[in-house]
Write a structure and sequence with these properties.
The protein has 198 residues and is an alpha+beta fold. The protein contains two helices and ten strands. The protein has two domains: 40 residues; 146 residues, Beta Barrel (AOC barrel-like). The protein starts with a helix and ends with a strand.
């Protein structure tokens, strides 16, 4: 695909997203329901349209040094996971799996695992998409980790990242000097990329 074709494809994609968002807004204004609203390709909330999503994300997070029970430590974290159930607003379901990786740091203890850093989403090979790279923050609330961020380069630059996950297993003892050196996690809310269409 040459530069002109890529530019044209990107303009068509942007126009289609705008049309989807406008269609969702008009349907709401006219009070339409059922089939009319079900036909929109992605949910629109406050002007945001979900462009890409993966319903499953699970893997592990390693910590250096380990996280202890109460005392705050400055910790480096590497989060890796496998994505599944991915789909795109225009192309539909994507077969196969992809990966999600984040490199983060923060001053944390086991009860307040708040981090910031960078991420990379490698989409399933069947999508044909380049990786999406960006910045993120992770904030804990009642045992649920809330992930938010934005794509700064690669596929879907300018979209907003969101996801929630919980940890399911600890490696190491939180009350020991070494602390918890790794955790397994699984998502409780889909990984999604959304674009603000006004």
């Amino acid at each position: 695909m040459n530069i002109t074709q890529r530019f044209t494809a990107r303009r068509v994609r942007a126009a289609l997203v705008t049309t989807v968002a406008a269609g969702a807004g008009i349907a709401g204004l006219l009070g339409m329901s059922g089939a009319a609203q079900a036909s929109t390709a992605g949910p629109s909330v406050n002007g945001y349209v979900v462009i890409d999503t993966c319903t499953g994300v699970a893997g592990s997070i390693s910590y250096s040094p380990g996280i202890v029970k109460v005392k705050d430590r400055t910790v480096q974290a590497v989060m890796t996971g496998t994505t599944s159930g991915c789909s795109d607003i225009f192309n539909g379901a994507e077969s196969g799996t992809g990966t999600f990786t984040a490199v983060m740091s923060g001053k944390v203890n086991l009860s307040t695992e708040n981090f910031s850093g960078t991420f990379t989403i490698n989409w399933p090979a069947s999508s044909g998409f380049n990786p999406s790279n960006g910045n993120l923050t992770v904030t804990e609330s009642n045992g649920v980790e809330n992930v938010s961020g934005s794509v700064t380069s690669g596929f879907d630059t300018g979209t907003v990242l969101s996801m929630q996950y919980v940890t399911t297993h600890n490696t190491g003892k939180p009350r020991s000097k070494k602390g918890v050196t790794a955790q397994a996690y699984t998502n409780t809310q889909a990984l999604s990329l959304s674009r603000n269409e006004g």
